[in-house]
């Protein structure tokens, strides 16, 4: 078995599985909220976030030992570490305390892995040129497509649920900031895209809530269409509630009870930008892509 770890702006995620026949057979998953990206672009990483992230990695190391995974995990960091002034210092801390090589992915590498992971759940032979992948994270949002020549191309903007929640991005700025995801010729530049697959904690959590799951299950979430109307309805339901009240009503929101409205707001803005009536949720994404790519 193999393992991959994603250090994001809001959470640290672990996937244990085996890559075979173009997809990952999942053995187990884990997620811990550390809010590492709770700072602005160019600033140092949050001290508390660093401590929580190292503790999460140490907890994952124990889980790997218990699962009998002997190979070192693929450990990747995205926008929070990529855009921090002390990202290299954090990279060294991970090496010293865990003995793991932390790879700080570029926006292009992150986009390619997210696309590969999300597309892996499609039926074999599916035309991926008609699919675009959206990855809405805590610190950034990516829109990724496969061009007719087979090349995966993605654009990234520094708009995420944590950034919006922290007022680093203002709600009125969303249309203009998210429009930077599109090619110069706008929607036409995306080509024959007719399906948007979405990955990341916001959309998978929304799908789980809409399915009335008492416990998160990957197989129940992946492939679940989430309509714009459902997103708007959930936002209308949750917005008047305090984070504590949201969590009391939906315990699955733990770790996202404060930023969930920001995530839903981003999706509504994306639906307007892309003319999308729905997004297809996928639990397969960056972690799957890391294992499939053999990092």
Q: Helical percent range?
A: 25-40%
Strand-residue proportion: 15-25%
Mean pLDDT reading: 93
Kindly state the number of beta strands.
11
Assembly category: single chain
SS element count, helices: 12
- Widest sheet: strand ordering: 8-7-6-9-11-10
Sheet with most strands: 6 strands, mixed
Shape, please? globular
What structural class should be given to the helix and strand makeup? alpha/beta
The run of helices and strands is: EEEHEHHEHEEEHHEHHEHHHEH
Uncertain runs are none
Using only C-alpha atoms, the radius of gyration works out to: 18 Å
Q: Determine the N-to-C terminus distance.
A: 14 Å
Structure, described:
With 295 residues, the chain is of the alpha/beta class. It has twelve helices and eleven strands. The protein has helices at residues 47-67, 79-82, 87-98, 107-119, 161-165, 174-178, 201-210, 218-221, 228-238, 243-249, 260-274, 286-293; strands spanning 2-7, 11-20, 23-33, 74-77, 102-104, 131-136, 141-146, 152-157, 195-199, 225-227, 278-281. The protein has a six-stranded mixed β-sheet, with helices on both faces. Strands 3-2-1-4-5 form a five-stranded mixed β-sheet, with helices on both faces. α4 packs across α12. The radius of gyration is 18 Å and the shape is globular. The model has no long low-confidence stretch (mean pLDDT 93).
